[in-house]
Amino acid sequence: MREASTSGHPMGADPGLFGPSSVTWQMHGDPMMWVAGVRALYLQALHPRAVRGVMQNSDFRKDAWGRLMRTANFVGTTTYGTTEVAEHAGARVRKIHTMLKATDPDTGERYGVDEPELLLWVHCAEIDSYLHVARRSGFRLTDDLADRYVAEHRESARLVGLDPADVPASTAELAAYFERVRPELAAGPEARDVDDFLRRPPTHPLLIPARALLWRRVANLAYASLPPYAHELYGRTAPPPATVTRRLVTTGTILRTIPARLRWQLPPKHILRAMARLGPGARPAPYKLDRRAAILDGPGRAKRGNGGGGGRWRTPG
């Protein structure tokens, strides 16, 4: 029998950068993270300099699936992997970024994709999307726990090359960041390309019915969950906020009925490997945070959040 530490994990086992006591560990095991990831792509594409760096340095139109999966793998690795593996993944990303440049077609300016303001935009769009979709779809987080989640991800910001001191450490700071950067946002040609792909991704003819049935619903829901200013920039309307919230809650409820062990069997199995390393007590589960939420919020109290655009929404408590 393996000896356990005071934390309940095997002695000498590395919990990684976040560990099982973090909000990140519990929340990133939620299936709504896939919808959140698509929302992040929509939001990130609205920063012309940032999305230009992506489009000019990758074949996004042909490899968007690959990019989405690589991002998911990076998040899974840094959340559930060992410290060494997470640091290695971060170093690889930083090295790649130092080699990539983009050109502003209007001014001819050449700039690096690792400029801090671009890295910060990508980071904040991701964290905002993960937190927004999770909470709005019914994943219980008090405001204190939401702040803790944002603060935890100063660590992931460090991995990609940012100074944690320059990264929002609370939901209020995150909302203030979006207010500050909004004048720089626009739906340029690259953003339109991202929108076109996410609405109609190329696929094998035999899979077109599945694309219409499954993917389109995911993409539409992700788009609908964006802040109102994003809808205005893209020039496409979205259902009323109450309708979007209801659809997010319904989707989250359905996906969460799928047994976690079955969901976690899908490659690359980050969570299962973490549980094998740390023991069954490391299993991500919302109830581990929900106990604290019940104490702080009280029964029946609604959650509230700010989706980066200043608009408030409510989900059942």
From TrEMBL:
Superkingdom to which the source organism belongs: Bacteria
Segments of this protein annotated with the region Disordered: 298-317
Sequence ranges assigned to domain ER-bound oxygenase mpaB/mpaB'/Rubber oxygenase catalytic in this UniProt record: 25-256
Gly residues compositional bias, start-end: 305-317
Name assigned to this protein: Oxygenase MpaB family protein
